[in-house]
Amino acid sequence: MKHAKLLTLLAVLVIASLVLAACPSQPTGGAATPAPAEAPTVAPTPVPTEAPTEPPAPAGLGTIKVGTNAEYRPMEYVDESGAVIGFDVDLMNAIAQAAGFEVEFINTR
User: Fold this and answer.
1) What is the C-alpha separation between 88 and 85, in angstroms, rounded?
2) What pLDDT does 81 receive?
3) Cβ atoms of 62 and 54 closer than 8 Å
4) What span, in angstroms and rounded, lies between the C-alpha atoms of 35 and 81?
C-alpha cells in the first residue's frame, strides 16, 4: 500500500514538473517589445537595367520521342484528325521550344 502511494506521489510530481517546464518564463501576451532606438540603414541594391540573358540552347538534340497513353482528357487525347493534343502535349511543346529541340509524340497503350 505504501508503495502505491509513493508511486502516485512521484507520478504527480513528474507531471507537475513537466507542465511547469512547458510554461514560458515571461508572459508573451499583452506586453509590447520596445522598439529599437534607431533603425539600421541598408544600402540599396542596384537594379539591373538589362533583362537576364537566356542560356544557350544545347546543340544537337534533334527530335525527342515522347511516349504517352492519350486516353486521359484533358491531359492528353487523340482528336478527330488523329493528332495527340492536350495539356501535357502543350507543356512539352513549350519546353521543347524553349530548349531548342523538336518533339515527336508516340501514342502507346
Assistant:
1) 8
2) 94
3) no
4) 69
